[in-house]
Design a protein that fits this description.
The protein has one domain: Dehydroquinase, class II (Rossmann fold). A five-stranded parallel sheet has the order 2-1-3-4-5, sandwiched between helices. It is about 40% helix and about 20% strand. Bound molecules: ligand CA2. The site of ligand CA2 has 17 residues, from loops.
Length: about 150
């Protein structure tokens, strides 16, 4: 059976491509979803790609991924910097967790420098735009191949 990676996106990422291209690039979230689907296909993985503006919905999806996915790629957007609920949910998961941000959060306002998600993530990729998502898929595939 094909192994599934859950790619979860937080608030306002549905607006990608409509504003602030200098920070987030000009691709839409649907463009990123397509990139991820192509990459996953090449790696022999399947992806579930979701976005929500609601913190609790993201928590529910993390709980679902805990039982169904071999990895979680998460861009929790602004909840990255605030959400203990998302951290607690991630901490229940045994699968690989990669945190992704389109922008380099460390070059931005100081309130973006703290990430609750990072405390649960195996690794974090930021500042590389949409490529960060495909690199995260590569990282999960490599670790599955190595068996660790
Ligand atoms: O760089 C990232 O991927 C972020 O997770 C994006 C979040 C931000 O709060 C994080 O600090 C870093 C914001 C997503 C909002 O995206 C928009 C896209 C277009 C127009 C308005 C917002």
């Amino acid at each position: 059976m094909t192994k599934t990676v859950a790619i979860l996106n937080g608030p306002n990422l549905n607006l990608l491509g409509t504003r602030e291209p200098e920070i987030y690039g000009s691709e839409t979230l649907s463009d990123i979803q397509q990139l991820c689907a192509q990459k996953a296909d090449a790696l022999g993985l399947s992806v579930v790609f979701k976005q929500s503006n609601i913190e609790g919905e993201l928590v529910t999806w993390i709980q679902e991924a805990k039982d169904n996915a071999v990895g979680i790629i998460i861009n929790a957007a602004a909840y990255t910097h605030t959400s203990v609920a998302i951290l607690d949910a991630l901490n229940t998961c045994d699968c690989r967790i990669i945190e992704v941000h389109l922008s380099n959060i460390h070059q931005r306002e100081s309130f973006r420098h703290k990430s609750y998600v990072s405390r649960a993530a195996d690794g974090m990729i930021c500042g590389l735009g949409s490529i960060g998502y495909t690199l995260a898929l590569d990282a999960i595939a490599a670790r599955l191949t190595r068996g660790d």
